[in-house]
Every structure is written in C-alpha cells, then in structure tokens.
Amino acid sequence: MPATTPAPVEILDHFRALAPRYDVVLCDVWGVVHDGVAAYAPACDALACYRAGGGTVVLITNAPRPSPWVIRQLGRLRVPRDAYDEVMTSGDLTRDKVAARGGAVFHIGPERDITIFEGIDIRFVSADAAAYAVCSGLFDDTKETPEDYRELLAGMRARGLLMICANPDLVVARGDKLVYCAGAIAELYAAMGGEVLYAGKPHAPIYRSALAKAEQARGAAAPAGRTLAIGDSLRTDIAGALALGIDGLFVSGGIHAAEFRDNPSGDALADIFAAAGVTPHAVTPRLVW
What we know:
Rossmann fold; five-stranded parallel sheet; disordered N terminus
C-alpha cells in the first residue's frame, strides 16, 4: 500500500477558528497564559471566550507547587478567574508520591517550594541521610546551571537515591529570560545513571488527573478526539498529549520564540518538529481569540 501523507499542520492567527472542534482544553500556564511576571491578556481573553461558548478549561502546569498556591499566584499575576475552570499541577502529583513514601527527604530546590510538603509526615535531611530526594528546581535559578549540581548528583547516584522530579520542564520563560527548571537537574541525574520518577508532563498521570477534573467541572467526560492540549513545549505539552490521542496546539511564541521570531514558517516548523519527534495538530504564534 502507498504511504499515507501526514495532514498538514494548520498555522492559525486566532484560536476561535479551532475552538468549536473541542469540548475541553488542557492549557499550559507558563509561556501561554503568563510569563511568570504578568498575564498575557489576549490569552486569558481567548480562554474566557472559549468557556463562554460552553468549553471547559483545565490549566495543566508543571509548577512544583499545589494547585491552591498556583491559583493564588494566577490572581497576583492578574489572570482572571473566568479564564479557567480548574488547575492541575505537577506539585499536586508530587505531594501524592511523597505522602505515599513519607520518611527522610532531601529537597533540591528553593525555599519557596516548601509548600509542596505542607501537612505531609516527612523530615528534611541531608543527601547523605535521605531515603530519596525531591527536586523542585535549582536552589538559585538566577545564577546556577545544572552543571553546578554534578558533584552533588554523583554522591546521590553512589548511594542509589531515587529522585522525584516535581517539574519535568527543562527551562521556562521568566519575563524575557529562560531559566532552568527541575527537569534539567533530573535529566543530568538520569544521564549519570540515577533513577528518576517524574510527576508532571509529558507523563500520562497528570493528563488523566486533569481530564478527571474536566469531567467533574462539566458533568460529562470528553473523548480524546474532543480534547485539545495547548502549550509552548513540544517535549512536554505536545508530546504528552499526543501520546494519549489528544490534539495539540503549539504556541510558538513561548520557549521556542527565538527559533521563530514570532513568525512560524513551514521550513522552520518542519525542522523543529523533526528534532522533537512530535508534530502538533496546529500552531499559533500566541494564544489569541
């Protein structure tokens, strides 16, 4: 039989052209809804318009903090509450994994991420005394790189410590800068032979939990064919969705912005999709209604 030709990727200026095909949107946060400093007003408006037309929006994020904390942060960044129904975070899943294990934990990450552990029966210890490690980020992501952790990780690897990665993202946009995330530390640890358990995207559990929240919010399940994932990371947002049979809308103006200069073209898209090994259903420079 002749080989089938893949469907062309749609390049859209406005989400409203795609929205009627879907009942549920699983939308990434950093790089799509805000940049860590302020909300993207057009993106928030697009999600609000989608919801006004009967759609359900679950914000699905690799933020290494519980969803109530993220909801408060969204408010501080002026993301309007009518832009989403529910929030699902990798921090929520991390809490579940840590609660199931308990015991002595070595935490790699900034002090602000301690909210992951609130109310859980654990104790914080050094890497030499820990039963396992939880990585939520770098201690100081304004100065450090993953290479600064190589010696620490070598010691953990020698002890055979499991690392729970609370944020599988490699980098995230903070304003006009890219900063390293926990995923970059976990990737280095895995390359050194360490065992890593990932809590967020692109792994299936966070999507299933987000879909369960969507079903509860709308009072009915949405089939995969009527669900759309929106995100700016091919490696996490799009790859994770496609693995579950969910269409992906790739926002090229997020962490990949420098590669497109907000003007995605066929050749540039083909190259980056080939490198990532995933092809989304559609592409838009920014989420706009």
